[in-house]
Amino acid sequence: MKKLLLILLCLPLLFTSCKKEITDGCTESLAVNYNSDAEEDDGSCLFSVIGGIWNVYNIEYFLNDSLTYSGPPLEYPAPVSLQFYDNFGLLGQIQPDSTTQIDTIHGWFIENDSLYVGADVFKYIVSKNELKLEGKFFSGFSVDFKSIIKAIR
Q1: 72 and 146 inside one domain
Q2: What is the mean pLDDT of residues 2-13?
Q3: How far apart are the C-alpha atoms of 76 and 95, rounded to whole Å?
Q4: CA R_g for the chain
Q5: Which of 149, 106, 146 lies closest to 126, judged by CA?
Q6: Residue 92 near residue 82, CB atoms below 8 Å
Q7: Distance between CA atoms of residues 120 and 122, nearest Å
Q8: Confidence (pLDDT) at 64
Q9: Which domain holds residue 98?
Q10: How far does CA 84 lie from the centroid of its chain?
Q11: From CA 150, how far away is CA 153, in angstroms rounded?
């Protein structure tokens, strides 16, 4: 009887001690807080502008708070893309009429919720696949435009 009681008391310990611990964390490899050991995504992923190519699909220009244009990037009927690098280089690839032009800008940086690119300053919102930049675009003309740039990766 004592042996049966001992077996009944030890049996639950056997099953509970074999339970595998699951590691929660960010499982998205593009996230800045990616955890390669995580087995389940816990929704904590944080994303950056760095990583992948951002394909611009919409630009809105405002003059004196009035919308003056909304649509694909002006002057470029073909895709416009941006790629941010760790070394603070920004590669803008513009492909009008199947010819590739590459512009490299050095000196972008992020401070709080602002993205500084050359003379331009944008508030930015980034998720895994979407980027929204909102700010002034210093056009070089006498008038500067407020702009909203939307891109996906």
Answers
A1: yes
A2: 60
A3: 7
A4: 25
A5: 149
A6: yes
A7: 7
A8: 82
A9: 54-152
A10: 10
A11: 11
